Amino acid sequence: MRTRADVVTGNNGEYSFEAQVGKYCVYLKRDWRDEYCVGDIAVYDDSKPGTLNDFLTAPDEGDLKPDVVKRFEEMVAQAQQSAGAAAGNAQQTAQDVAAAAGYARAAEQAKNDIDAALTGTLKMANHLSEIAAAGEKAQQKSRDNLGLKSAATMEAQSDIYDRTKGRLAIPGAFGFGCAFLPEDVIRFDTKSDFLAWVRNALPGEYSVAGPYDIIIPDTRFEGDAQHPVD
After folding, report:
1. Contact, 221 vs 212, CB < 8 A?
2. 114 lies in the same domain as 189
3. Which residue, among 9, 12, 52, 49, has the nearest Cα to 165 in the 3D structure?
4. 149: phi then psi, degrees, rounded to nearest 5
5. Which residues make Cβ contacts (< 8 Å) with residue 218, sequence separation at least 6?
6. Within a domain: residue 167?
7. CB atoms within 10 A of CB 134
8. One domain for residues 106 and 190
């Protein structure tokens, strides 16, 4: 199954969204144009909440492809054989000693090849720790490069109607764009109940329902209603 979702950041670059278990291609675009791919992410059952950078730089099970693993095993076997041959021939004649030295050099080269292969695999895993060690300015620059700005360090809303200043908006904030469930519908039995709710409701969009002539004159209404945002 393929799923597409667009997440819009706030004025300060803040964002928040929930992703189901699966693998996703991540694209960034400014003003709904100039789209470009920044990488792939994988979400697992035991994945912990984190920033988009956390998931983009996390090692994936596909990072070590079968051909890489096979080559790694071949280099290890070659290093072991070369080291054993070097040790077995150390007491031979001068010609054998020269050959043993060649084996030793081959073993050292195999070790270097192994180190190079592992360095490429581990580079991404070490990226975040390197940024953290470089200090706050480096961390902020990394967030800016991903278009996150200060959003990565903000605390998210406790619910969609949370209006605490400085908090990161969650999907469906203030009800706008929220997919309301049946249990989210606010039902009114009398016009006085509806008017009392209008006077006290927080600004936002709500799913409301009421019998004939309660919400809209001469109409039985069930749908979305907007309370002005100050």
Report:
1. no
2. no
3. 12
4. 50, -130
5. 212
6. no
7. 12
8. no
**Same domain? 50 vs 137:** yes
* Structural contact between residues 24 and 6, judged by C-beta atoms closer than 8 angstroms: no
Regarding whether 130 and 97 lie in a shared domain, the answer is no
Judge whether 30 and 48 are in contact, CB under 8 Å.
no
Residues 70, 119 share a domain: yes
DSSP 7: -
Is 3 within the bounds of a domain? no
Which residue is listed with tokens 């991903």? Answer: 146
**Alpha carbon distances (Å) from 222 to 59, 101, 194, 208:** 48, 86, 13, 6
Distances from the Cα of 119 to the Cαs of 80, 109, 195, in angstroms?
20, 15, 66
Mean pLDDT score across all residues of the chain: 73
Token match 């597409």: residue?
4
- Rg of the Cα trace of the chain? 30
Least confident of 1-5, 78-82, 137-141, 224-228: 137-141
User: Domain containing 105: what range?
Assistant: 66-123
More confident of the two residues 213 and 69: 213
Q: What is the DSSP letter of 156?
A: B
Determine contact, residues 85/95, Cβ cutoff 8 Å: no
> Does a structural domain hold residue 11?
no
pLDDT per residue over 71-129, tens digit each?
767 877 887 787 777 666 656 666 766 777 777 787 788 777 766 766 665 555 555 56
Residues 113 and 82 in one domain: yes
Give the chain's domain count. Answer: 3
Bridge partners, 216 (sequence order): 219
In a domain, residue 15? The reply is no
